[in-house]
Amino acid sequence: MKAFQFVETQEPAQLREVKVPEPGPGQVLMKIGGAGACHSDLHIMEAPAHAPSPPLPFTLGHENAGWVEELGSGATGFAIGDPVLVYGPWGCGSCANCRIGMENYCQNPGQSMPGGLGADGGMANYMLVPSTRFLLPLGDLDPREAAPLTDAALTSYHAVKRSIQLLGPGSTAVVIGAGGLGQMAIQVLKALSAATTVIAVDTSVTKLETARHIGVDETVVSGADAVQRIRDITRGRGAALVLDMVGGRQTLEMAAQISRVLGHVTIVGLGGGALPVNFHSPAKECSVTSPYWGSIPELMDVICLAQAGRIKMLVEQFPLERASEAYHLLHDGKIQGRAVIIPNG
């Protein structure tokens, strides 16, 4: 089969011929319907040569959906042809966090290797999943459209849910970065806390127009007056929740300046910036966190929201042969929602 693989650091990924894997005991072979292309992939491929790297080569694609193709011996709970999502963070399954579905915070990192971020992922015709506990039924959702639920939606849902107690009437949430991840965060905010005023900030007018279309209340073009505009919208109090989906130096500076007393600043993006912290900034007793992905029960919630039509990712599909093009467009900020690679289209 063909697979789009990360082969060498600081080099473009390559489309290569590899063997179709065979499922061992407890494992599942999936036929891939869609595999999302994520900025995390670019950060890994573009990292300096001296930076830590997973063993190479491996197949990219950590947002995956498709159909059960073959069950290894002892694998139960699913049948051939079932449409499924793949939960991405593959933990050890035995530690306290894994036991409650929080494999994203596995306490034995040496025993965990997410598919598409070290182990072989879904940008291939088939993908090997180590256990049925990482599969969730999709119901009537199309795997070609649903793949981004496993990261873009799950990460956004987890980031919003941990702050939901702050998002009552009169509150404001700011989403910095209105790309694929930000668009999903906006929808999750509207689904979980309709009383909250949601502000989207971006340098792209086109992405802000998309944010308007999916329900954001206010849009702010990033620039010299952006902080003052947000202060005006919040009547000088700042935002109860600031979600920085970029994580760069400038966006983190903005996040600190628009934070609210007793609020939350949540850094989701991997832009490599540092949050400026001093006596005056962020606001007094504002909590700062950097979450990672989400739990299996939270992914179940995400699927329910998608099935109810409350959240939907704007997807641009690419055949496997155009995966490299998709990443170039992603790098240049020309993907409006999420690029999804379709290996079996």
What does this structure look like?
The protein has 345 residues and is of the alpha/beta class. It has two domains: 2-151 and 294-342, Quinone Oxidoreductase, Chain A, domain 1; 154-289, NAD(P)-binding Rossmann-like Domain (Rossmann fold), CATH 3.40.50.720. Helices cover 25% and strands 24% of the residues. It has ten helices and 16 strands. Strands 3, 5, 6, 7, 8, 15 and 16 form a seven-stranded mixed sheet that branches. Strand 10, helix 6 and strand 11 (218-221) form a beta-alpha-beta unit. The longest helix is centred in the middle third of the chain and has 13 residues, at 180-192. The protein starts with a strand and ends with a strand. The relative contact order is 0.16.
Mean pLDDT: 95
Please name the CATH topology of the largest domain: Quinone Oxidoreductase, Chain A, domain 1
Intertermini distance:
14 Å
Residue share in helix: 10-25%
Q: What's the helix-strand series?
A: EEEHEEEHEEHHEHEHEHEHEEHEHE
Radius of gyration: 20 Å
Briefly note the structural class of the backbone.
Answer: alpha/beta
Number of helices: 10
**Strand composition percent:** 15-25%
CATH architecture name of the largest domain:
Alpha-Beta Complex
Q: Which spans have pLDDT < 50 for at least 5 consecutive residues?
A: none
Quaternary organisation: single chain
Shape: globular
Question: Which sheet architecture does the biggest sheet show?
Answer: 7 strands, mixed
CATH class of the largest domain: Alpha Beta
Number of domains: 2
The strand count comes to 16
Find the CATH superfamily of the largest domain.
Answer: Medium-chain alcohol dehydrogenases, catalytic domain
